[in-house]
Design goal:
Layout: E1 7-12, H1 16-28, E2 32-38, H2 45-48, E3 53-55, E4 68-71, H3 78-87, E5 92-95, H4 102-115, E6 119-122, H5 129-139, E7 146-154, H6 164-168, H7 175-191, E8 196-202, E9 213-220, E10 223-230, E11 240-244, E12 247-251, H8 256-262, E13 282-288, E14 291-297, H9 305-317, H10 325-344, E15 348-349
Parallel strand pairs: 1-2, 1-4, 2-3, 4-5, 5-6, 7-10
Antiparallel strand pairs: 7-11, 8-9, 8-15, 9-10, 11-12, 12-13, 13-14
Helix pairs in contact: 3-4, 4-10, 7-10
């Protein structure tokens, strides 16, 4: 397979994740070709991607003419499908969470390593514009040493989930395994592994099958990261609030890409893709010799397609993946420590888990 040949993708699942977060970016990148879509009963992918073949069995994605398997099926299917694809010799992208436990995730990571294959997890929130802005400000030293980091993911949800498997819940299916996996990953990307974890996990809505409100605190030397999300937040707080020894940064409003995708907009041919609304730009307050000075900070342009840009470089040029398998394992170990902390009402050291 030469560098000029498009990477033929087999997409497993065409629910919200496959339809909204993967197919549009695969389609927008000419270095990839959406060759097949596994849909168990419907054929919705044909409406937008008529060139892609719809197949009724997962095994039809594991044939020699498929170069990459992308798994976006319900959470309980991630592990068996990823294992089957790796055993078939396929590089694999798995929608988060990789698994319901760190043990299962580690088994997949080792299998991929033994096979010499790529195993990566779709942590698209690393490419949110707000997160990229926070990351840049920290790396540039605009805040000084960070002492408090807060990320909130507030929503107001009514009624039951549209997907049956989400309504039923079960192992590895709740808000902690959804948004929690994302914002824990963001914190670890910024600050590395914490020393300890403390958490409060709750179920607030009677329609929820499991955790729908959480606060997870990650403890670092001289720094505390507070990560929270809930489904009964009619008045959202700041998405990011970061305090450092030289100043602070506050930003309201989540990344614009998901909203645009849900509205039917697509990244292909859209020059303004990922650009934030100026009304939602964040505010940086810094300490100067003249006192506190505030300035508006334009949001970095988010682009989930960057995940697939990196993927091309991994598969064709031998570059390192944006999200490594061991990082997915680490996030799940932190998540498990959060569950233990909430259950036992104590701070849980992480040193014996990572």
């Amino acid at each position: 397979m030469s560098n000029c040949e498009a990477i033929r993708v087999g997409l497993a699942g065409f629910g919200m994740s496959g339809e909204i977060f993967h197919a549009p970016f695969i389609h927008a990148d000419p270095r990839f070709h959406l060759a097949r879509v596994y849909e168990r009963s419907s054929s919705r992918s044909r409406e937008e991607y008529p060139e892609a073949e719809v197949v009724r069995s997962y095994e039809e994605l594991l044939t020699e003419d498929i170069d990459l398997v992308v798994i976006t099926t319900p959470n309980p299917l991630h592990v068996p499908m990823a294992r089957q694809a790796l055993e078939a010799g396929k590089p694999v992208v798995v929608e988060k969470p990789l698994a319901a436990s760190s043990r299962e995730a580690e088994e997949l990571r080792r299998l991929a390593e033994e096979k010499g294959l790529l195993l990566t997890v779709y942590q698209n929130r690393r490419l949110d514009g707000g997160f990229l802005t926070v990351k840049r400000l920290i790396e540039e030293g605009r805040l000084g040493d960070v002492v408090d980091y807060e990320c909130r993911f507030d929503r107001f949800v009514q009624g039951y989930r549209s997907k049956q498997w989400k309504r039923e819940g079960g192992r590895g299916v709740d808000l902690l395994y959804d948004i929690g996996v994302h914002i824990i990953d963001q914190a670890v990307t910024l600050f590395g592994l914490p020393e300890a974890v403390c958490a409060d996990l709750r179920r607030q809505r009677p329609e929820s099958p499991g955790v729908d409100r959480f606060t997870v605190i990650l403890y670092y030397p001289g720094l505390r990261a507070v990560l929270s999300a809930g489904e009964l937040s009619a008045l959202p707080g700041p998405h990011y609030l970061v305090h450092g020894r030289k100043g602070a940064f506050c930003k309201y409003g989540r990344d614009i890409q998901e909203e645009r995708l849900a509205q039917g907009r697509r990244p292909a041919g859209d020059p303004g893709w990922g650009r934030d609304d100026p009304a939602r730009f964040g505010t940086l307050c810094t300490v100067t010799e003249h006192g506190l000075v505030q300035e508006t900070i334009p949001t970095e342009t988010g682009h989930y397609g960057g995940f697939y840009d990196n993927l091309f470089q991994v598969l064709r040029q031998g570059k390192a993946p944006l999200v490594r398998g061991e990082e997915a394992v680490q996030v799940l170990r932190i998540l498990e420590a959060a569950q233990e902390s909430s259950r036992e009402g104590r701070r849980v050291p992480l040193t014996d888990r990572v």
